[in-house]
Amino acid sequence: MRRKRRRRIRVAKPFRLLICCAAFILLIIGVNQLVNPFGGAVAISQAGRPAEAGPSAPDPAEPIPAAPDVNEAPDINEAPDINETPEVNETPDIDESPDPEEEPDAIDGQDPADGAYAEEDAEVEDAEVEGAEEVDIEEEAPQEPELPFYPVPATPPVNQSYFRDALFIGDSRVMGLMLYSGVTEATFYSEKGINVSNLLTNPIVMQTGGEKITIPEALQKKTFGKIYIKMGLNELGWKSAELFTGIYGGVIDRIRELQPDAIIYIQSILPVTQKKSRQDAIYNNERILEFNEAIRKMARDKGLYYLDIFGSIADDEGCLPDGAGLDGIHLNKEYSVIWLDFLKRHTVRDFDKVKL
Fold first, then answer.
1. Rounded CA gap, 346 and 226, in Å?
2. How far apart are CA 23 and CA 37, in angstroms?
3. pLDDT grade, residue 107 (50/70/90)?
4. % of residues, the chain, pLDDT over 90
5. Which of 257, 250, 266 is nearest to 201 (CA)?
6. What is the H or E stretch that residue 279 is in?
7. 211, 310, 316, 325: least CB-packed within 10 angstroms?
8. What mean pLDDT do residues 69-86 have?
9. pLDDT in tens, 308-334
10. C-alpha distances in angstroms, 47 versus 43, 44, 50, 51?
C-alpha cells in the first residue's frame, strides 16, 4: 500500500517575519476595539502601548503642587483698614427730576400698576416739579356749620307769662311795641333816636324817683331771663354796615357780661313801605337788607339767637305793607300785635337753651 506523503511548504524567513508582524498588528487592533467600543483613534506609542485620544494625562515628570495646610491658622494680626474712605467716582444728581412718563419698576415681583402700593385717600403735598404744568383747581367754599336755634325756628306759641322776666332794648320802634302790642309784664329800656354808639351811655332808664340811669347801671340792679335787642334803624345813615355791627357787637358783649345767664335774642331791622323806600336815600329796604345781613352774621359769630322779624312783617315785595304805619316806618297797633305774635311763636325755652 502506497503511503501518501505530505508536502510542507517552506516559507522563507523574511516572509515569516512579515506575517508575524501583521498578525501582531491585527491583534492590537482587536484588543483596542474591545477596550474602546465607541470609537476614537488609537495612538501607538513608541513603547507599543495604546493611548486614548482626548485630554492628555499629566506628565509624571511635572511636579504636583502641594495641597494647602488646613491646620494652618490665618494671620489675625493683619486687620483691614477701617479708616480708609471708599472712593466714590460719581456723585448722584439730587436735582434731577424723574421722568413722569417712565413707568416705575416692579418691587418684589409686584406690578406697580395693580395699586398695591397706592393709598386712595392720601393727602398730596404741594411740590414744585421742574417742568410741571400748574393747574388751577377750584375749591368749594366750606359750608358754615349749623348752629342750634339759628335762626330761631317756629315753636308752639307761648303766653304772656313767658315775657315776665323779659327785657326789650331798642329804639322808637321798640317803644311802639310797648305801647301797642298788648304785652304787659315785660320791661322796656327804649328811647327815640337812640343808636348803638350811645345806647350804653345815655341815661334812658326811668327810676321810681324820676331820675334816669344808664342801661348798664340798670342791669346791675335787676336780673332777666330773656333780653330782646333791636337796633339799626337810626344807624342806616352810617358809612357802612360793618362799622355798625362792630360797635353793636361791643354793646352786646357788655350786656352779656352783666347778664351772663340770660337768653339774648337779636332782632332784624323791620322794613319800610315801598313809597318810603323809593323816596329816601337812607331809609330804604335795600339798605335795610344790607344791614340785616351784617346783623345775621354778627349773631352767628357770637352765638346769639337771631329773629328774622323783617320776614314776618314784609309783604311779597319785601316792603312794609301800605297802611301799616302813618309815616311808612313805625308800626300801628295791628302790625305791632303781628310782631309780638311772631315773638311768641319763635322762642327758646330754658330746657332748650344751648351755650354756644
1. 13
2. 21
3. very low
4. 53
5. 250
6. helix 274-279
7. 316
8. 47
9. 999 999 999 999 999 998 799 999 999
10. 11, 8, 9, 11
Residue 172: what residue type? S
Q: Which of 71, 150, 62 shows the shortest CA–CA distance to 346?
A: 150
pLDDT at 44 over 50: no
The CA distance from 231 to 243, in Å, is 14
Cα of 97 vs its chain's centroid, Å? 27
Q: Where are the beta strands (DSSP E) in the chain?
A: 42-44, 50-52, 166-170, 187-190, 205-206, 212-213, 226-230, 263-267, 305-307
pTM for the whole structure: 0.59
How far apart CA 77 and CA 84 sit, in angstroms, is: 18
∠ CA 112-118-120, nearest 5°, is 145
Give 276-311 pLDDT, tens digit per residue. 999 999 999 999 999 999 999 999 999 899 999 999
Give dist(CA 11, CA 132) in Å, integer.
110
Q: What is the distance between the alpha carbons of residues 28 and 50, in angstroms, rounded to a whole number?
A: 8
Q: How far apart (Å, rounded) are the C-alpha atoms in residues 235 and 171?
A: 11
Task: Report pLDDT digits (tens) over 240-265.
Answer: 999 999 999 999 999 999 999 999 99
Cα 229 from Cα 268, distance rounded (Å) = 9
Apex CA 16: angle with CA 14 and CA 17, to 5°? 65
Length of the chain as a residue count: 356
The residues facing 187 across adjacent strands are 167
Q: What is the CA radius of gyration of the chain?
A: 58
| Cα 245 → chain centroid | 33
Return the bridge partners of 167, or none: 187, 227
Q: What are phi and psi of 226, to 5 degrees?
A: -135, 140
